[in-house]
């Protein structure tokens, strides 16, 4: 007789139960229709997590179909743990970005650490060896003590996990705005390398084949984590601290190595990470993809404490776990492998031909659910959006104090150097990092070859809020430009769509318009979407975050030889490529002077991005360009200041723009340095100055001269975030 006594429908108020678990009345009715009866306690829990926004994308799925997902280099697009893209020579790059926003708001260290651990396992479950990590972060302003606490915890969690597991963190981006107060965004990206013939899929097929559990023993941590990630944060969120999982990077390292060895076994049928919704999602999704049934014997699941019920086993999000399906009769081969790596493992079930997802504990049935409806029939909601009427009057920038604006923007944490933060990450473990964090996309060598993978992660939340459609195009183009600026050929992208509640008409319209713009940019820039994640309900106290789609993009460098001479030196000439206009919508000067986004219309020319990008890439690879910097947040003057401070070189430039245009954020611009004795022959390229060794930063326009000692400039730029983080108030 089972020691578990599951509450019956007579013992509990069924309506309160399913609503507390996140199911609506109509969703519960659909569950009853699928089962032909009322679900029991465990079955309600299973449907609630599988049909949560986090797992089913029930509000965002219609928009995801807009994205191009195939292309010349795409080997495997969305639907598995990560996307796979060909890089030649029978090799491929595997990558994905995911969010861990809500957990990081409640417990920043573990929320961020387990976000890193989860995305690593996604890459490893495909069979790839991770080569680098990236992150995209958003916090409230650092003038608030709470935001400093969150930033400190998140950065420590990212470094604590990545450093211990031995994967370098090579790039990222961070912004600060009061719209993220109490609701930080923590998006983690991982990139890996694999041979074509080693690519794995999360599938359960072959009647009689065995299901093997490997990794940490199951505990009660993370139960209903997927549901927690699918609702708004509130004052009650602190009480949901148990929903945050605990990471163990040392076990994660063992699991990674064991998994990469297991994929070399021909008897492996399928493998999947136990991520959101734990054993429930991994097992049921594998069964659905394999067109099979599955019978799990839960008394065989390794647990770390007595009395864990089937409900808790299925919904636990204990970290560092994988689920494998292996050929019948070969189980011991895998168990011996995991034992060698000092990992707990067990045979917990088998594949069936019943097309049902059956869970038993000591022969008592705790769930009996048809596989396909559980995985594929989650409701999809198409709601009505509404664009609010915006103030279209343009702000006045005709009489700005250039000196004051420059100093304030230089020291704002969004623009200031992030060295204080990224130095907490190991950037070179593995000895393949070529370009480290700082100014550009990261570059990591493909070991044993002369190739490298460039990777970047970018978000443009204020642009998207300013104009969702154009802003959606801009965020993809920014990632594209960052890869071009290092000489890489952009291949494909992954995205994480971070928004507020889709049940609010304005938010739903932001989601609709911005994804449309993103999809158009993907088509024109030839960067298909091969993986991704959606994070909705990012709200606290009725305030939504800015719409924040984040794009992770990878590019290929076929021969890294040109990078040996790709660095700035005194005497290099500076060119500006691209015209500067009065573009202030969503800009940093707008935020500084007017606080709110004024929704001034700004647009981007995608076809111009392609032609200009190809010309820039050719200048880099031919050895003409010694450095390329995109002109992004803060505008041209701040981009020049960052170059001077980063390289500790003097810079003299004269620019034919107005005072305000020094801070304009017109799209599609590059600063290109050219080696002495050469010239840049690109349309719209204008020589504006040179690098010097006199230690002085001087920029002139027709009205103003900005002059700073480079050391002073550097101290302000690099000291801004440390000054904020050591504040005592």
UniProtKB/TrEMBL annotation:
Cross-referenced CDD domains: PurL_repeat1 (cd02203), PurL_repeat2 (cd02204)
Q: Biological process GO annotation list?
A: 'de novo' IMP biosynthetic process
* Gene Ontology cellular component annotations, sorted alphabetically: cytoplasm
Q: Which InterPro entries match?
A: PRibForGlyAmidine_synth_PurL (IPR010074), PurL_linker (IPR041609), PurM-like_C_dom (IPR010918), PurM-like_C_sf (IPR036676), PurM-like_N (IPR016188), PurM-like_N_sf (IPR036921)
- Residues that coordinate or bind substrate: 99-102, 121, 245, 535
The residues that hold Mg(2+) 2 are 122, 273
Write down the top EC class of this protein: ligase
Endpoints of the signal sequence? none
Quickly give the catalysed reaction: N(2)-formyl-N(1)-(5-phospho-beta-D-ribosyl)glycinamide + L-glutamine + ATP + H2O = 2-formamido-N(1)-(5-O-phospho-beta-D-ribosyl)acetamidine + L-glutamate + ADP + phosphate + H(+)
Positions binding ATP in this chain are 57, 96, 495, 532
* Domain (PurM-like N-terminal) ranges: 79-194, 440-557
Identify which residues the record assigns to the active site. 54, 100
Q: Which SUPFAM superfamilies match?
A: PurM C-terminal domain-like, PurM N-terminal domain-like
- Where does the UniProt annotation locate this protein? Cytoplasm
Spell out the molecular function terms from Gene Ontology. Answer: ATP binding; magnesium ion binding; phosphoribosylformylglycinamidine synthase activity
**From which domain of life does this come?**
Bacteria
Partners and quaternary state? Monomer. Part of the FGAM synthase complex composed of 1 PurL, 1 PurQ and 2 PurS subunits.
Q: Would you identify the family this protein belongs to, as annotated?
A: Belongs to the FGAMS family.
Know the name of this protein? Phosphoribosylformylglycinamidine synthase subunit PurL
